[in-house]
Amino acid sequence: MIEVKNLVKRYGSHLAVDHLNFRVEDGQIYGFLGPNGAGKSTTMNIMTGYIGATEGEVLIDGHDILSEPEEAKKCIGYLPEIPPLYTDMKVEEYLRFVAELKKIEKEKREACIQHAIEMTGLASVSGRLIRNLSKGFRQRVGLAQAVMGMPKIIILDEPTVGLDPKQIIEIRDLIRGLAKEHTVILSSHILSEVSEVCDHIMIISHGKLVASDTPENLTKMMDTSHRMELLIKGDGQQIRRVTDSMEEIVSVEMKNGEEEGTMAVTLNLQEHADIRERLFYAFAEARCPILMMTSSRVSLEDVFMELTADDKKARMEMEAAADQEEGTEKIAVPQAENGSGEEAPEENADDTIKGEQ
Which CATH number fits the domain 2-75+152-221+302-356, given the four candidates 3.40.50.1010, 3.40.605.10, 3.40.50.2300, 3.40.50.300? Predict the structure, then answer.
């Protein structure tokens, strides 16, 4: 459906997208993730035809977005972070205008408009001015213009930004509904949203694709160990004797618990190790009751932070270098001196300038 081949985008000496390659298949919801400055928005803008690439190509249903822009764009519905709405228009009037812009055949326009209204739940506000709608309904209008004409691919950039929790849930349900008839590419900084909605996740860093898989497989890929947290009644030596007897335990961290006579214990375990039952009986035999036991595994947030750690480090180094350069420039500026060799007060300098003018 979408093929991105050896995509490069340069802004002067800055390489925003670095020989990027990926493929988007039909009928799935793809999450497109990356830290600020990683090249994510640039890639999306190239895919939708808003900007050109320095090198490489983007094929939309077999059509090159650069050499066949009109045919390629017919396959795409795009919702930017800020929906492109004319707030002085009524909802149905605006969608009719969008249908004309998309060159939908006259005899099909009304059916397309009504289908978009029904799909996005806008029937109750279709006769109202867009400026009088809530942010949630405005986002629905933006979605309606994106699906107008039933393009095969819907690209959504931060579709839930600025919405309240109820509106976010409604938009998520809409996105899931879109996947029944469209391929959806979703860009979002809310990782819990991506893991809940998307079938496949692509993570970009430094303009390169660093991961592409299902949310489950990504977490499994990073999950070389998992962690258990326990609250145990007993002393450290007793607890250590039990944990030392289990080879699945990689490391142990202990500190005094909030309750008197207890220890808060963190166990880092080998991959796929499940020793909960053995732990229970071992500590019971040692007369060290387990008061609490919880198990946690790698989350999508952990995966994202791990894969983009170099990107964050590079940005911090660039900011530090910029601050140092700015500080050097400030120090290098000489101060005006008066006749006694002392620095001239600022007001004197201003008076001098005024007098010269």
Answer: 3.40.50.300
Q: Which residues contact 85 (CB under 8 A, 6 or more apart)?
A: 94, 130, 138, 141, 142, 145
Strand 55-60 with 63-64, pairing: antiparallel
What is the amino acid identity at position 243?
T
Which of the listed CATH numbers 3.30.870.10, 3.40.50.720, 3.30.70.2040, 3.40.50.620 matches domain 224-296?
Answer: 3.30.70.2040
Q: Alpha-carbon distance 269 to 100, whole Å?
A: 60
pTM: 0.68
- Kindly state the helix (H) or strand (E) to which residue 207 belongs, with its residue range: none
Sequence spans of domains, the chain = 2-75+152-221+302-356, 224-296
Angle between helices 91-101 and 106-120 (to 10 degrees): 130
Q: How far apart are CA 6 and CA 18, in angstroms?
A: 8
The string of pLDDT tens digits covering residues 236-268 is 999 999 999 999 998 899 999 988 999 999 998
CA distances from 15 to 9, 11, 205, 308 (A): 6, 6, 12, 17
Render 176-198 in DSSP notation, one character per residue: HHHTTTSEEEEE-S-HHHHHHH-
- The answer to whether the CB of 122 falls within 8 A of the CB of 133 is no
CA 322, 323, 326, 331 torsion: positive or negative? negative
